[in-house]
């Protein structure tokens, strides 16, 4: 069976930790920032962990 290619879009957006957690950035952070409050923008900084059934498909896309 041939090797599977990693999904290029997924590898640009998702990070895997050493323990196997899947981290993603918050959405709604790229534009239209003037109308959002400072507190709302601050809450969208950093990374958020992915939970549920999406983890399995994301890891498959990354080849992990």
Polypeptide structure, described:
With 64 residues, this protein is α+β, with helices and mostly antiparallel strands. It is elongated. A three-stranded antiparallel beta sheet has the order 1-2-3. A hairpin with a 5-residue loop joins strand 1 and strand 2. The chain contains three helices and three strands.
Indicate the topology.
Elements: H1 8-13, E1 14-16, E2 22-25, H2 38-43, E3 47-49, H3 54-62
Unreliable spans: none
- Shape field: elongated
Number of strands: 3
Q: What distance separates the N and C termini?
A: 17 Å
Number of helices: 3
Summarize the structure.
This protein is α+β, with helices and mostly antiparallel strands.
State the main characteristics.
single chain, 64 residues, alpha+beta, 3-stranded antiparallel beta sheet, 3 strands
